[in-house]
Amino acid sequence: MARSGEQWWRDAVIYQVYPRSWADSDGDGIGDLPGITARLPHLADLGVDAVWLSPFYTSPQHDAGYDVADYRDVDPVFGDLADFDTLTSRAHELGLRVIVDIVPNHSSHEHPWFRAALASTPGSPERARYIFRDGRGDGTLPPNNWQSLFGGPAWTRATEPDGSPGQWYLHLFDTTQPDFDWTNPEVRAELEDVLRFWLDRGVDGFRIDVAHGLVKADGLPDSEFDQYTEPTALAPMWDQPGVHDIYRSWRTITDSYAVEGQDADRILCAEAWVLPAEALARYVRKDELHQSFNFEYLMTPWLAADQRATITHSLAQAEAVGAPQTWVLSNHDVVRHATRLGFPQTPGLERIDGIGTDDPQPDTAVGLRRSRAATAVMLALPGSAYLFQGEELGLPEATRLPDEARQDPTFARTQGASKGRDGCRVPVPWEADAPSYGFGPGDRSWLPQPAEYGPLAADRQRGAEGSTLELYRGLLRLRRELRLGRGRLAWLDGFPDDALAFTVTSPDGSVTVLANLGETPLALPEGSTILAASEPLELGATLTTDVTVWLTT
Ligand code: NOJ
């Protein structure tokens, strides 16, 4: 844990658990809270500071829990509130903080508020909590041209209580995820109360789902926004100025839980796919959120010039507002980096969308090697880092899931054109020789586990020299000892363009990081000592392609 009064989150390593897929205690094939509690020692041993739990709230699970029907309870599939309390206290005993997800942009269609909205009439206070509008023309056309992020229109026509076709409601995601109307003070008060509910239960912070989507432009105008080339704020549904007011208010709530004399900050981290970086930095101004995910870094190809440019301006943007930068390579919405990096690296072709049997397949050996090298770069960088479950085992994406097994609503809503995100959500292998690779007590697993997960199981890697798990443990230990997250980065001259070469210096030590992204082997600086390397390296050896090394010089 960070020392008292030092704002622990500024250099924290936060590990994402996707509750469905981490550990199953009851053998139903779906992970759960008691399963997580039982496996927490893995995280303490790995050396992370906090665990972030994706949603475990009451939900019909149409979007794996990002469709919340009761924000103050646990879905029976995951356990109950007592299980949550046990998890939190066990985590705290082990020195791990607990971050939970808050989903404020939309609820489930099974939320009592949405049921009440459907049961009431146009113009009622019940409807005013969501975004209901009359259709265009004779009412049969959606109110505007917005598209759902999961495919298809962002509007669904409701049936009025008398059985007639009625108003339309907005859902930026699935039909089962109606968007709240954040101009309604009742919505604001409710979600603030939800924050307090979990803070009172002892959580250490929140990851805010779709943090840039809560406020929509007045009049809900049509939009032809191109998310790849235009500033996000030009889209009437994203990054509207009003979101900042909400987060200023949330910050006063988390700040009110600070404990004098203790490093007890409760934190807020935005999931905001916002461009340009200057716009994203506004979310982490002093009176707003503590962190926001740096997705630009995740999207940066494994090319030295691109990596250098992203790292440099990411650090500058964060520093301009006094926030720590965050770094992330994988999560539950994108193709795992051990697979992404197994494709030829081309700017603009990030391959974050799911992969199916008919798609080009990655070179898995190259992907693993590069992902280890990329992680060794990331864990040296100043700021805070996020890890996604299983990346410490070098898990690849499951790229050959049968279509019948796919559960991500994106797959169905796009008629299979997008494979969806199931490939990164496959349950984690713990024991190579157990049924379901030790995911649960039986052989059930809500998504099929590929055979290549067996040899990557945690029990095969623990203590095994050169394993990905031991690499992560070693890097995390050094990162903590040298307090690299609190350090300053300086680029080094005199290295080839296709290498990354920098030092990170903190009050507690310093490291030189060299990564060879080119073809030509690189000599290590004379007199240097190897502290860690992403592949086994002999002293006096050269640095070959896709290897990162940490040195003292
Ligand atoms: C972002 C979450 O990370 C993703 O999994 C979810 O589908 C959408 N928000 C909608 O809540």
Keywords for this entry:
13 helices; alpha/beta; 8-stranded parallel beta sheet; 553 residues; 5-stranded antiparallel beta sheet; binds 1-deoxynojirimycin
Task: Note down, in words, how this protein is organized.
This protein is α/β, with parallel strands linked by helices and 553 residues long. It is 24% helix and 16% strand. It has helices at 33-46, 81-93, 112-119, 185-200, 242-255, 277-281, 295-299, 304-320, 337-340, 364-378, 409-413, 458-461, 468-481, and strands at residues 13-17, 50-53, 57-58, 70-74, 97-102, 132-133, 155-159, 165-170, 205-208, 267-270, 291-292, 326-328, 384-388, 488-491, 499-506, 509-516, 522-523, 529-533, 542-543, 547-552. The strands form 5 sheets. An 8-stranded parallel beta sheet has the order 11-10-9-5-2-1-13-12. A 5-stranded antiparallel beta sheet has the order 14-15-16-20-18. Helix 5 (242-255) links the parallel strand 9 and strand 10. Helix 1 packs parallel to helix 2 (81-93) and helix 4 (185-200) packs parallel to helix 5. The longest helix is centred in the middle third of the chain and has 17 residues, at 304-320. The radius of gyration is 23 Å and the shape is globular. The two termini are 28 Å apart. The mean pLDDT is 96. The structure holds 1-deoxynojirimycin. The site of 1-deoxynojirimycin (NOJ) has 9 residues, from loops.
